[in-house]
Amino acid sequence: MAKYLLIESRDPFDANDVAHFYDLAEGLARKGNAVTLFLVQNGVLPARPGTRSAALGELAAAGVEVLADDFSLRERGIAADGLAHGVTAAPLDVVIDGLAEGRKTLWH
Amino acid sequence: MKALNIIGTAYRATLEEQDDPVVWITHAMAGAGANLDVLLRGNAVNYAVLGQDASGLAFGERRQKHAPRLADDLAGLIDKGVAVYVVEDDLDERGLEENTLIKGLRPVPRDGIARLIDGYDQVWHW
Amino acid sequence: MSDKPTLTFALMDPPYENARSTTALLLIDIAARRGYDVKVFAYEGAVCLPFARQAAHPNAVHGRDVEEEDHPLPREWVAAVMAASERNGGHVDWVNCGLCVDERGVDEAIAGVRRGTPGDFWKMASESDNTLVIPTR
Prior knowledge:
The complex is a heterotrimer. Helix content of chain B is 29%, strand content 20%. By secondary structure, chain B is an alpha/beta fold.
């Protein structure tokens, strides 16, 4: 079992290949890998409950840890205590933690 | 260390650079002994298409001498022993059939990417 | 994994065009404050990040003079991150892709930045505990 950190910086309302990156996270998790999806920059926009948020809840249900950068949330006026189901706010330090831990890390 | 370079965006600065910057750096690193392969996904699968022609770029009297030849550059990587994978679903969705592409590509289904990247120490998404 | 790992970052974005360049420097800053050894390969537009001739300017829209505006200069951020790393027992090795520097004419970089090649990136990655590529769009 390997550990992965997938960083999604793009907004699914704006880029239609974000769904493919989510699918990759799910696929890796279903294979038994430990997977964290870290949303950053405009990638946090679906963390505000809305029409594109369900996908994040589905990822969490599939075993993906879904985190959203707390600064990116605050920058966009998204309350950390009102995020879509399955998403947790977290500091950017998570990325450095993951790299230091040896996670295969991909930025989209 | 074995690395996979994922190229997911095509034609960014290819005219100014006369190359794709990631295909180019892959060539440079492979030439320096790096052990790496390439996965083309998204619109970057179009790089494998035969017949791309970006020649003729000119600004006033300043004409470009070397238009990018992206399919040839990919073929060159294959000749160097770099495996060039391409996402089948991305080809199909874009109406790209095998006989329109360079030889030597290794198709992988989109849902096979997870298994593919498991085999690499480093996965770099460019 | 060692206590103080060595991390490599490959960057592509120039300053002032999108959020990625700032997030990249924030990540490097976190690693620097932890005293990690950090290797940075600046490729394409990212070679402009440590360009020594970036200059501050006023902001008439907000009625601020140069001093009041205190406009961010990424070269200062890069220098600050390098200093933070040294203070914490680490080091930032910043390599600008030489050909990328030449074509952009940004051959004056701040102290501590050196010129290199793609082979340097592979070497950096091979000598690091982990590597993150932050691509442009």
